[in-house]
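note to self — DONT lose this again. spent like an hour looking for the file last time. sequence + predicted structure for the chain T wanted, 142 res
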Amino acid sequence: MLRLLPVLALIVACTPQDVPPPTRSAQFDTFPKKLFETFEISCGGPGERFEKTGNRIFECTELLPPDTTAFLILNYDGYPQDLPKSVMRLTSTKNARGYRVDADLYFNVPRRTGPAVQVPVESETLDKALGALYQAMGGSPT
């Protein structure tokens, strides 16, 4: 996922500079196949894993650097035998206007007991890059 940022930056650099408002959602007239193909290709690096759940959910998980991993384990009662990962999930929902795509970004921290903790990642820079990516792929940020 961290490797996805340079890909987003490259796409953003190649798009018109009408900067969309920060968002993690967009509306597409037709199913955004090219967006999901690009997302899958960008999730092919070391420590990354792409998973597709039906035609609706696309997810890229990535192992984190040691200092981030340690921070999350210590601060969220993590389980060192099951390391935290960054998760970027794109979800597609069919609606009356076509397809809405929503992006979620969080750290998933497995714990020894109880369910994993999902720590949201807030980033205006990432939100702007997602908005530009959505526009480049034919969507309208919402």
